[in-house]
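User: Hey, my collaborator sent me this sequence without any context and asked if I could get a structure. I don't really work with proteins. Can you help?
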Amino acid sequence: MIEVGQVVSLPDVANQEDQRQVFIPQVGVRGVQLPVRVADGSGNDFHTVASVDFAVSLQHNRKGTHMSRLMQILDETAQLPLSLAEVQRMLDRARDMLDADRAEVTMRFKYFLRKRAPITGASGWLDADAEWSVTLNNGTSTRIVRLAVPVKSLCPCSKQIAVYGAHNQRAYVRVELELLPSAPELDMDRLFRLLEEQGSSPLYPVLKRPDEKFVTESAYDNAKFVEDILRDTVLALRQMPGLRRFRAECESVESIHNHNAFAATEEWLSPL
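Assistant: No problem. I've predicted the 3D structure and written it out in structure-token form, which is a compact way to encode the shape of the chain:
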């Protein structure tokens, strides 16, 4: 029996030669739940939980990869405030340690923004679904950021035809941004605020009565179809520096239908 702390020599089966000559572009771990700290746009960081897929390529003559090393790299990286740059450095380490041409990671997590109510200033955390997908292939990096921000939408048609009131509901502005290799670190706070500005009104975690009155009336004065929100989002994203491509979508969780309404588009801003 091997005692705790005892160093023994064991065969490295994964490192043995494989005769089938089949290159594997992706092999790794999926669905790793990891407590992380994410750097925000103000130089601070917040705690959240990420679901991580982490993979490398495997040479045609190698039997397997050392997945425990992927887990070790994830654990060490999770001790630092995470940014896209830090994730890319993590992939560099994985390629070096596992002698791989390619390494990639996808991290899905809740992104939190500290928000104050518009009139009283009551504060709380508003969350959005975020995802970072970074690939490093023979020294070339691809960085993709996905963010889904909740907003309020109010129907212009309902406002026009109703004697009083208008149906309004929660909607989601979702984007997928592919960054240019030369683009600086993406300011996630700024992106969050940019997207929520495209709705009829932003959402707030805490609203007192004066705040609720303001938000309700502001949305009524800023009625938008999903098509309107999408077009405004497109115009805003076209002004963002450092983007190669984006996909944008608005989905309204309808309050007077048993179905949702959505609009979506995709644009290339820079050639491959």
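In plain terms: Residues 23-268 form a domain with the Urate Oxidase fold (CATH 3.10.270.10). You can pass these tokens on to your collaborator as they are.
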